[in-house]
Amino acid sequence: MSLTSDLITRQAYVRIGGWQGDSQEINAQYNADSNFEQIVSESFPPQSMWDMLTAVENEIATSVAMNGDSVLRRVLHDTATVTSGGLIPETGDSGGTIIGNWGQVIGSDGIELTPGLHEDEIAAVVNGPTGLFKSTLHSFALRPPRIFATVSSLTIDVCTYDYNTRAGIIAEGGLLLFQACPNAYFSGLMSNLRNQDSSYSELAAQYAPAYQAWLASPTSSRDVIVEGQS
């Protein structure tokens, strides 16, 4: 089964009593109410759920992007191509906003660059001797707002996230980015169900620790199992 925003949203609604009736009636509505038209919730209408779920996915994506060792970075992978002396990129080549830490930085010659030199040292390498005496150092340096390198152009492995695009997909019940992490989405959404109603706030407080633990986890296999959830 694919992990969709529709699935996470209806799991949240059934826990806050979003459908009315006996168990059979609620079960029927849970399975058939594809547009959440029968939901009875003054506090959390469907659009608010989708907005919160988008924010949760953005938080998950940022957590993954900040972890250079996470295997989940592949979900967000993009590249950013820039020339030496150009502005540090804010968006990937596909148009998404760059988030988190960079991955590898590859020069135009296919060799990985390291951040070992300062920009003045890079200039000395670039403008130094040619031929036999030319330096073989491969490095880049950041001097905001620009990036400098010992090669003319470079490609950076980055993580990107397009909030507006994802908001539209989530509002349409579409696929969530991190298919292997249903409980991170669910606990994240549930932890946001807070308002002046103390019962909602108490329920949200039950899920907040699991969600925060997932976001803070340094490991690559990072799906949190919420007690009572599978």
What does this structure look like?
The chain is an alpha+beta fold. The protein has two domains: 5-71 and 166-216, no CATH class; 75-160, no CATH class. Helices cover 40% and strands 13% of the residues. The protein is built from eight helices and six strands, in the order ααααβββαβββααα. It has helices at 5-15, 23-32, 46-66, 73-76, 119-126, 163-171, 182-190, 198-216; strands spanning 77-83, 97-99, 105-107, 140-143, 146-149, 153-161. Strands 1, 2, 3 and 6 form a four-stranded antiparallel sheet that branches. Strand 4 and strand 5 form a beta hairpin. Helix 1 (5-15) crosses helix 7, helix 3 packs across helix 6 and helix 3 crosses helix 7. 31% of the residues are buried.
Q: Ranges with pLDDT <50 over ≥5 residues?
A: 221-230
Give the overall silhouette.
Answer: elongated
CA radius of gyration is 23 Å
- The number of helical elements comes to 8
* Beta-strand content: 5-15%
The helix/strand class is alpha+beta
Roughly what is the average pLDDT, rounded to an integer?
89
- Domain count: 2
What is the strand tally?
Answer: 6
- Largest pleated sheet: 4 strands, antiparallel
The termini sit apart by 14 Å
Helix % is: 25-40%
Give helix and strand order, one letter per element, not per position.
HHHHEEEHEEEHHH
SSE inventory with pairings:
Layout: H1 5-15, H2 23-32, H3 46-66, H4 73-76, E1 77-83, E2 97-99, E3 105-107, H5 119-126, E4 140-143, E5 146-149, E6 153-161, H6 163-171, H7 182-190, H8 198-216
Antiparallel strand pairs: 1-6, 2-6, 3-6, 4-5
Helix pairs in contact: 1-7, 3-6, 3-7, 7-8
